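Input for the complex:
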Amino acid sequence: AQSVTQLDSHVSVSEGTPVLLRCNYSSSYSPSLFWYVQHPNKGLQLLLKYTSAATLVKGINGFEAEFKKSETSFHLTKPSAHMSDAAEYFCVVSQRGATNKLIFGTGTLLAVQP
Amino acid sequence: GAGVSQSPSNKVTEKGKDVELRCDPISGHTALYWYRQSLGQGLEFLIYFQGNSAPDKSGLPSDRFSAERTGGSVSTLTIQRTQQEDSAVYLCASSSNSGAPYEQYFGPGTRLTVT
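Predicted:
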């Protein structure tokens, strides 16, 4: 079975400092991985996706994630946090097969302090 | 272009009543998913439709839940005899199923409160 584990339920950073949101995955084959963001009272928005073409994936709003097979990790980073980055972030794996349903991590709530 | 739309945005209902939630996917998307987001369970898959194939209902939590997709487009999720534990945000997503990994586009959700 595939799964993702988000290691931190809450992360707080100061504006202008780096962001690191951690995610580990479990999969018996090469997974399809995503990061989604959910702003308060808003829908889920795709930040980036891992397609196996490149291990370093760049997404929207300056976010990127690196797929590390040896560590089974797919951590999300951003060099400099902005106040508008405050939101909940979900690491997601797509279940391979006819359904391609998404399996979500428990989420990390990012707070950005001025 | 238009994204995934859902209605109503909020629904308050009394325990025991039936509710219908609607999803209008992105035009041309053949795949449609329903998910539920609740405090206790996080985000969980409910049901999947792909074209004219039989739906994957493996995530539906009980037989009080059902869904249909008419004409390969609009979908309705029905919850019969609602219970307080059904209170959650119900999210719909659609996908074109081309260009793997298939990106799913989410609607804004319907917040269901069962009193």
